[in-house]
Write a structure and sequence with these properties.
Layout: E1 2-9, E2 23-26, E3 29-32, H1 36-42, E4 51-60, H2 70-79, E5 82-91, E6 95-96, E7 99-102, H3 108-111, E8 122-123, E9 144-145, E10 161-162, E11 166-178, E12 184-192, E13 200-203, E14 206-211, E15 214-217, E16 243-246, E17 251-259
Parallel strand pairs: 7-14
Antiparallel strand pairs: 1-4, 2-3, 4-5, 5-11, 6-10, 8-9, 11-12, 12-17, 13-16, 14-15
């Protein structure tokens, strides 16, 4: 029997990776804006899970050696030379944030006056942690509003919500059959997500408004009377705030290997 476990613990995920440039034209030249450092700090939270676990084991199952006779020989052929192995993967949720789009008059030039950086969605309430059991309410959609004109692009940061934690165990059981010399036939059954753990892997995070002056939501998950929109019940048609993806259920793969 052998086993191993790795644990990565991110103590800080601050950085400037993928923080866009903020430029302005001054006297015929292009230079960074004075609020560049403020933007770098606001957008510094990276999309990294706090904890990541990876474990594995291999167990050569006990063999029967004692005894003799035809019956025991048959039993040995059935129960000997089996091997059980597995890989366990778990992590806390990765960060994500909400975005927006406008049907009209919502380009970066319209909102910030510059094509080099865009406006950010407004956070006007508590969006929540970002992961719920409710498929259609992964976060509080009422906590957001679209930005208006004369935006400086610093309305909100990024990765202030977290996706759901994941936990997956993959198993494999194999039987090695010796056929003489160094030749071996292996019958191997692999089980992916053996415990059939289910978790949401994606969410509809972009809200669609009509325009900066008309904040009517065009992709709401719920109708005006508070009932679910019947056209958005499936994940691939999810409205704003609803789950848009789920991990795969248990699957199997059978292999026959020949080693010589």
């Amino acid at each position: 029997f052998s086993a191993g476990l790795n644990w990565n613990w991110v103590l800080s995920d601050k950085g400037n990776y993928q923080v866009g440039h903020r430029l302005e034209h001054v006297g015929g030249t292009v230079q960074p804006r004075a609020d560049w450092k403020e933007a770098e700090k606001l957008f510094g939270k990276q999309n990294v899970p706090t904890h990541f676990f990876k474990g594995n084991f291999v167990w050569d199952l006990p063999d029967l050696h004692a005894g003799s006779g035809a019956a025991l020989t048959v039993v040995k052929q059935i129960i000997n030379d089996w091997q059980l192995s597995g890989i366990w993967t778990a992590e806390t949720g990765t960060g994500y944030s909400a975005g927006f789009s406008y049907q009209s008059n919502g380009s970066s030039v319209n909102l910030t006056g510059s094509p080099n950086y865009g406006a950010r969605i407004l956070i006007v309430g508590d969006p929540g942690q970002g992961c719920r059991d409710d498929q259609y309410r992964q976060f509080n959609t009422a906590a957001f509003a679209g930005p208006g004109y004369y935006s400086n692009g610093l309305e909100s940061g990024q990765n202030y919500m977290r996706g759901c934690p994941t936990n997956t165990l993959d198993l494999a059981i194999a039987r090695n059959i010796r056929i003489g010399g160094t030749r071996t036939v292996q019958l191997r059954l692999e089980m992916y997500n053996a415990l059939n753990e289910q978790h949401w892997t994606g969410r509809s995070t972009t809200v669609q408004y009509v325009s900066p002056t008309d904040q009517t939501i065009r992709n709401a998950q719920y109708l005006a009377d508070g009932t679910l929109d019947s056209t958005r019940l499936l994940p691939n048609r999810a409205g704003f705030g609803a789950a848009s993806g789920k991990n795969s259920q248990t699957s199997y793969q059978l292999q026959l290997r020949f080693t010589f």
